[in-house]
Amino acid sequence: MKSIFGGVEEDFAHSRATWYAVMKEVAAKEGFEVKGEAKWLLNDTNFTNQAREARRAAADIMVISAHPFTTCGMLKEMARQGVAPKLLVGLTSSSSLETLQGCAKEAEAIIIPTSFAPVTPEAQAAADNAAKFNGSLDLHSAAAYENVMILKQVIESEGIMAKPDTLQDDRNKIRAGLAKLQQTTGLLGVTKRTPDREAIKPFLFVHAKAGKWEVLHNPLN
Amino acid sequence: MDFYLGLLQIMGVHTLLGLSAYVVLQTGQVSLAQAGFMAIGAYVAAMLTVLAGWPLIAALVVASLVAGITACLVGFPALRVHGLMLVVATIAFTEIVRLFFFNFDYQISRGNLQVGPLGGEGFRQIRYFPENGWTTLHVAVFIWTVVALVMAALWWMDRSRAGAVLRAVGEDEIAAQSCGINLTAVKVSAMTAGGAIAGIAGGLYAHYTTHIEQSNFTILLATFAIAYPILGGLSSVFGTVAAVIFIQGFLVEGLRFLGDWRNLLFGALIVLVMNIRPSGLLDARTMASLRRLFGRKEG
Amino acid sequence: MLLVDLAQSILDGVLFGATYALIGIGFTLVFGVMHKINMAYAAASVGGAYAALRLITLIGGPAWASLLIAAAVGGLFGLFIYWLCFRFIPLSNPLATLMSTVGMFLLAEEIIVHTTDGMPQNYPVVVGGILHLGEFMIRGDLVFVFACAILAMLILLYLLYRTKLGTATRAVSQQPIAAQLVGIRINQVNALTFVVTGMLGGFAGALIGSAVGLLSPLLVVPLTIKGLIVTVIGGLGSIPGAIIAGLLVGMAENVFQYFRGVTERDIYVMLLLFIFLVFRPGGIFSTTVKRD
Q1: d(Cα B281, Cα A197) in Å, to the nearest integer?
Q2: Cα–Cα distance between C65 and A191 in angstroms, integer?
Q3: pLDDT at B31
Q4: What are phi and psi of C135, to 5 degrees?
Q5: Full domain range(s) for residue C202
Q6: Spacing of C-alpha A80 from chain mean position
Q7: In a domain, B178, yes or no
Q8: C14 within a domain of the structure (yes/no)
Q9: Is residue B104 part of a domain?
Q10: Is C278 on the interface with B (CB under 8 A)?
Q11: C contact test, residue of A48, A52, A105 with most C CBs within 10 A
Q12: Contacts of C61 (CB under 8 A, 6+ apart)
């Protein structure tokens, strides 16, 4: 596989950044031929022009950097026009139940790099728990849960009581407490941090298979 | 406390937005252009304080002027049409403005930082208040001082000949015209005044949120702008304030304990209020009895 | 290749415009013929499609049956909207009904979000297939949407001009008091016309869902705006006008996207709309300047 083509949601900063600043640059550096990109807006419904651009580009790899609604719309139009890249890559925001509710058939085999999937025993237990209440533990809910729990941990360890006259002190304490964190216990187990406090999270590759997200490649193993 | 002051700031800006639509509604015109004027005010004021280093009040005055002039220029062609046509023409205007800022880049270097509007990413670093040591209380007081000034001006206008002329056009255009009222002049003046007020609202909004982007200024915001005066009643400026308190204070913040159900109640309560009080929360009769209550004869 | 692409782009735009035409017909009927502003129309239409999709997945059945269910549910929604937003509000106060239907719009949108967690829902293909004409591709489902729009127009024109209900509807919208004097029950006629337009809306919502391939709350605002645009370009109350306007808007979108890119596309569409409104306020088909 040598060439790559993108599809970008132009009015969403993260979708844009992921394609233009990350995927496109890295692809060129790694020696792929970047054949350009098709653009749309996040509530667009007509993808005829964009799918045709993808068809004309005839790239081996198609990357869709967008949210589920337009990811599905684009995939459906690509199916109509018979655009079948060898490899289909999606954006992490789309590795959720939404894409499968919207277009499980067209999204079949799409591969998405993400930071969360129930791959460890801890995460599997959490996902099962969420499923018990008709929920789905996707990366957004997992990250939101972890964020809140980290804050809870800091608030408890710093002894913050949230009194009106200690407001500014409390804020500083929370900041200092967060800065001190070396590792946190999240849904995937223990997560370590780099010296500049970036979380060291394993990235995973999931793919859509028969209407479900399955882990394709887990660098942990 | 900070939370309530923040809420007061939001209410102040929304009151201004509602008042900008109030003036135009007095002439019987439904304009969804107010969000567009507000966007212009927001971007102009923020660019003046951030990029040109102007003081806030001067920036607000210019933002208000630019938005007002735009309203005047748009008003001439747009006010040729009425009713639903005007609604759609003003929707088009608000969308054009929003999409203009979606495509608008103007950044300069400030130290190691690029500042200024950047298309879809929006306009960050509007830090006038924190840089000049304004607290939340200062900002809230400042915003409500502006609101009070605008309200006083409109209240005075309502009771003067100008108010009577606006209402005459709103009630019956043909009758107003046969009394020698120049319809175009009246409508365009109302539109200009509305644009100028929306411009101030935008300038204040940009500075207290510190980050603006095109998606802040949608048709939905324009719909809220007309919702306040309609829901509150068109007989006085206090109706608009009442509606802002009802929507932002009660429906948005007061019902927060209801969780998800709050959003469902939001629309339902608007439907209910319009059924019970079709002329608004504070209609002419309520205003009259309020006035009696405060010991004044109806004038 | 360039010319082929441009021609295909125009073709695709016109075809996709059929969905705007279909929703526009209902809008023009409500706004133009009945002289009422119903901002909740597109929201209720999409709501009808959602309800139909729910039912059809629950009880099973062919995809086309969802169109009929959506029409039935849409009719019911139309009746609700009439009762909740119009029946008890004096008609001399158009701003009040404008606001009550805005409230209803927010409510309908929120009910959709609430029941589906805002997740997009796959909508089955009702009529599929692609016609290949040499270099060109024509989407079968959009041709079907277009045919439905024409059919809806014929049925509505028949209802409006050849039946008692139609005569009564027009009478009520033109002269409510005179209509009452000749023995027309205004409330009943109004309720019935809301049911009929609601049915058309539900049907249109389902068909649009099928053409887009998805139902999502994200459809509601753009459809409302498209419906309003199509109504005024076509001329208030002109059903053929709405169809042509829908196709034109679809074409304009695709052509501007082709030449100016997606971020500038709508600026030009809206600019054209503004100019059109100001210089031809009566719409495509009017000879005189109408005022509502």
Answers
A1: 53
A2: 51
A3: 94
A4: -75, -20
A5: 23-241
A6: 26
A7: yes
A8: no
A9: yes
A10: yes
A11: A48
A12: none
Domain of residue B74, residue span: 2-218
Strands A3-9 and C136-139: unpaired
* For testing contact with chain B, the best of A8, A9, A11 (most B CBs within 10 A): A11
* A19 to A6, A24, A55, A87: CA distances (angstroms): 7, 6, 19, 16
**How many domains would you assign to chain B?**
1
DSSP string of C23-47, one letter each residue = HHHHHHIIIIIS----TTHHHHHHH
B147 in Cβ contact with B153 (< 8 Å) = no
- Rounded CA-CA distance A65/A60 in Å is 16
CA B224/CA B246 separation, integer angstroms: 12
Q: What is the pTM of this model?
A: 0.90
What's phi and psi for A63, nearest 5 deg? -110, 130
C165 closest CA partner among C147, C185, C146: C185
B230 vs C102: CA distance, rounded Å: 11
| Amino acid of residue C107 | L
d(CA C131, CA A180): 64
Smallest Cβ–Cβ distance between B93 and the set C85, C232, C274 belongs to C274
Per-residue pLDDT of B95-136, as tens digits, reads: 999 999 999 999 988 888 889 999 888 998 899 998 999 999
Q: Do C110 and B267 touch (CB under 8 A)?
A: yes
Q: Please write the tens of the pLDDT for every residue from B235-272.
A: 889 999 999 999 998 988 888 888 878 888 889 999 99
**For chain C, how many structural domains are there in total?**
1
Q: Do A10 and B120 touch (CB under 8 A)?
A: yes
- Its CATH class, for the domain covering A3-115+202-217, is alpha beta
Question: H-helix or E-strand containing B110?
Answer: strand B108-110
Instruction: Quickly count: other Cβ atoms within 10 Å of residue B92's Cβ.
Output: 30
Query: Distance from first CA to last CA of chain C, Å, rounded?
Result: 47
**What secondary structure letter does DSSP report for C235?**
-
**CA-angle at A90, arms to A87 and A96, nearest 5°:** 130
Bridge-based pairing of strands A87-90 and A61-65 is: parallel
Exposure class string for A122-161: b at 16+ Cβ within 10 A, else e:
ebeebbeebeeeeebbbbebbbeebeeebeeebbeebebe
- Note the maximum CA span of chain C: 66
Q: Is residue C204 part of a domain?
A: yes
- Using an 8 Å CB-CB cutoff, list chain C residues near A41: 262-263
Distance between CA atoms of A71 and A25, rounded to whole angstroms? 22
Q: Is C130 helix (H, G, I), strand (E, B) or coil?
A: strand
> What Cα–Cα distance (Å) separates residue B98 from each residue in A189, B33, B219?
45, 11, 10
Contact with chain B for residue A43, Cβ under 8 A: no
Tokens 């937003």: give the residue: C85
ipTM rounded to 2 decimals: 0.90
Q: In chain A, where are the structural domains located?
A: 3-115+202-217, 121-200
Cα–Cα distance, B117 to B109 (Å, whole number): 12
Q: B259: alpha, beta or left, given left = phi > 0 and alpha = psi -120 to 50?
A: left
Tell me, yes or no, whether B37 lies in a domain.
Answer: yes
Amino acid at C97: T
Report if residue B6 sits inside a domain. yes
First to last CA, chain B: 41
